[in-house]
Amino acid sequence: MLQPYYQKRYVEAGCDEAGRGCYAGPVFAAAVILPKDFHHPFLNDSKQLTEAQRNELRPVIEKEAVCYSVAKVDHDEIDRINILRASFKAMHLALDNLKKRPKYLLIDGNRFTPYQDVKHKCIVKGDGLYSSIAAASVLAKTYRDEFMKNLHHEYPLYNWSNNKGYGTEEHRLAIQEYGLSKYHRLSFNINPTQLTINFEEENIVM
């Protein structure tokens, strides 16, 4: 059972990201302030939900949240500043656009760059513990998936509509055959030569 809040004193926003480990596309982040009595039977860490459940939850969260915001940082900036900083920047951008200013932040994970003078708490696997982080995880994930499905029409060879840019075997084989697109993260060391070495190592382990 998810907890409705971490503390009662301040207005609290949950923050989470999606796409941090992907080979291609932006990293997305969401910030959500929920009513303290918000409840939905599906709400959980977005990775524990089916795509249909996430898509059902998204409009419910958007309608019932006190406020929410979703932001992204693109692949070029990820390569410039690194994925960790890009993830934090996406969270900051989402927080910038909230219609109500929170006084306390719940961050999924173990690190965060402080946002202005707002207190925060990092919580490992917080998207499976607190409703606001779970809601943020659902929004970040659904917005990113939608974005990657749209990119799929431009670069169908990688089947991003299915793998969403993650390093699946299908995606890696497509990179081996067709090379990298302009949306791939060059800082992730995903050139075909390196991928071939990784395949060999995986086969040895298996």
Automatic annotation (TrEMBL):
It is an enzyme of class 3 (hydrolase). It comes from Segetibacter aerophilus. NCBIfam families: PRK00015.1-3 (NF000595). Its EC number is 3.1.26.4. InterPro entries: RNase_HII (IPR022898), RNase_HII/HIII (IPR001352), RNase_HII/HIII_dom (IPR024567), RNaseH-like_sf (IPR012337), RNaseH_sf (IPR036397). The keyword Manganese applies. Manganese or magnesium. Binds 1 divalent metal ion per monomer in the absence of substrate. May bind a second metal ion after substrate binding. Keywords: Cytoplasm, Endonuclease, Hydrolase, Manganese, Metal-binding, Nuclease. One of its GO terms (cellular component) is cytoplasm. Its cofactor is Mn(2+); Mg(2+). This is Ribonuclease HII. Belongs to the RNase HII family.
